[in-house]
Predict the structure.
Amino acid sequence: MRNQSWILLAAVVVAGAGCGGSGGSYGSGPSNNNPGGSTSKQVTVRNNVFDPSATTVPAGSTVTWTWAAGADVHNVTFDDGQKSADQSSGGYTRAFGTAGSYPYHCTRHPGMTGSVTVQ
């Protein structure tokens, strides 16, 4: 009986390891939100999310943010002071010449954040 208890416990642990929680998103969720895993130079500004929320690009790259159809008014405001206009359509581009981390957010929607890592 003792062996069966250990086998049952091991089965429960293995089954539990395969289960993952699903984190909620703020607002209408992104279609491809991949924090830290993207290498895209294109970011879509959706209602209350940047999609992808994090991307890594080589030094010398230009990243473009494009507002999705029907998006609320948002902006792209970097911690270093560079920012886009408040807008609900159109786009914004920024060139990244120096390696580093460039966090940004929308000043109109707390929790709407993103980052560009330049290597």
Remarks:
- Residues 3-36 have pLDDT under 50 and may be disordered.
- Residues 36-101 form one domain.
- The chain is about 15% helix and 35% strand.
